[in-house]
């Protein structure tokens, strides 16, 4: 007990910079990606999200006696493609293994995974971090990529926290059981110094972009199709051996990855400063406080009694198939960034804004639909980013397509819409009122530029503001703004302001 007491007392957090002046962090990231295949890993059940609980199940994913799994070829292909994109070697032969443990969300009482024969090994992913001295590159070594199946989803009902403690009962939905997952495991990441939180974030972000570019998953962190276990340890400056790590489970946003690393560094430094040791355990990230809390101890390694799954044939991708997949890989996200920076003439800052907004794909698609890159960039980074923030959705989840944005931009360029009217058209599209042209029609948003309609508004503005009109006649053309304002008001913002100004000056007999 004495030992337990020494180790369980809460130590003070150490300020991040202070911790970094005396300790070196080591990171390890284990990322799970849910594949976007139509059917599950070992049966033909649908993987569609959001169906009624336990409607997408069959004897195989419910593990009824006598049922036999069959490997999903598309999942294997996705694993190989990701492995190739990460510069891994692809194993010419490998088996699935059973990982034995009991949990109610796993009807087999084992998970089919890969153990010592993963499909991809020894790769790397290069990431870039912004520092006050400019961008800095890090190479993250990838130990392995392996295939496995997801578990079902347990909900604990009746308690205040949604956790099992205090709940009245728990229910299980097996729709997710058997959905294919890839797990990507890094080697320990060293020598990041105080950039550790940023390196962790940049790695997950780059991996997400890479997976997305392959089209094998929608990689939505909030929906859990990409989730990350963040391992952190500290060692005193100059030490020869790594420290004991904690493993913060299922972190589900880029920002949380960064914060979890930062918090663990402060927490572990506090323990080490106080002469306590870091306990090897899983921890949970608390979104609201930015802290982590203790989960399950991993001091005693659990024995999963792994053994090759006797129901499944080995996976043996031919060298020809692997080379075919390699040749068909899309351009890497890092190469795409370099290319569009050159093509669109972007500064480093402009490129960074695009990357941070996760808007490269959207802007590229808008340009492909005919918009100039500057306009496309501005619409996505300003107006549409604002709407996304307001409604708390990702940019890509807004109810407007790149083609629709391109059409709005074209309507402005043709003079059919002013920028102000264009924003109203976007409102309409986002509200589900249809295509931009339909919204223009239905809401009557066309710019009033034909001279008869505009002329009437101009005459009214002059008649209503005789003193202003007099000043303009006397040569103070700057005063025309007030009359343009009156015209805009009368036309509810739909007048072509430039045309209105010309007409006003013409009517009052002065040169523009
Ligand atoms: P587990 O199965 O317990 O999760 P793994 O061997 O899969 O353990 O390693 C988990 C991750 O932690 C890997 O990314 C690995 O590189 C990393 N890791 C291993 N040792 C350390 C350490 N001392 N500090 C930080 N990360 C570590
Ligand atoms: Mg792990
Ligand atoms: Zn099934």
Automatic annotation (TrEMBL):
GO molecular function, one term: ATP binding
Catalytic reactions on record: L-aspartyl-tRNA(Asn) + L-glutamine + ATP + H2O = L-asparaginyl-tRNA(Asn) + L-glutamate + ADP + phosphate + 2 H(+); L-glutamyl-tRNA(Gln) + L-glutamine + ATP + H2O = L-glutaminyl-tRNA(Gln) + L-glutamate + ADP + phosphate + H(+)
Superkingdom of the source species: Bacteria
Catalytic EC class: ligase
Biological-process GO terms, alphabetical: glutaminyl-tRNAGln biosynthesis via transamidation; translation
SMART domains found in the cross-reference section: GatB_Yqey (SM00845)
InterPro entries hit by this protein: Asn/Gln-tRNA_amidoTrfase_suB/E, Asn/Gln-tRNA_Trfase_suB/E_cat, Asn/Gln_amidotransferase, Asn/Gln_tRNA_amidoTrase-B-like, GatB, GatB_Yqey_C_2, Gln-tRNA_amidoTrfase_suB_CS, Gln_synth/guanido_kin_cat_dom
A Pfam entry, by short name: GatB_Yqey
Keywords for the protein's UniProt record, in alphabetical order: ATP-binding, Ligase, Nucleotide-binding, Protein biosynthesis, Transferase
Its EC number(s): 6.3.5.-
Asn/Gln amidotransferase domain location: 361-508
Database matches in HAMAP family: GatB
Entry's family note: Belongs to the GatB/GatE family. GatB subfamily.
Subunit description: Heterotrimer of A, B and C subunits.
Biological role: Allows the formation of correctly charged Asn-tRNA(Asn) or Gln-tRNA(Gln) through the transamidation of misacylated Asp-tRNA(Asn) or Glu-tRNA(Gln) in organisms which lack either or both of asparaginyl-tRNA or glutaminyl-tRNA synthetases. The reaction takes place in the presence of glutamine and ATP through an activated phospho-Asp-tRNA(Asn) or phospho-Glu-tRNA(Gln).
Protein name from the UniProt record: Aspartyl/glutamyl-tRNA(Asn/Gln) amidotransferase subunit B
Organism: Murinocardiopsis flavida
Gene name of the encoded protein: gatB
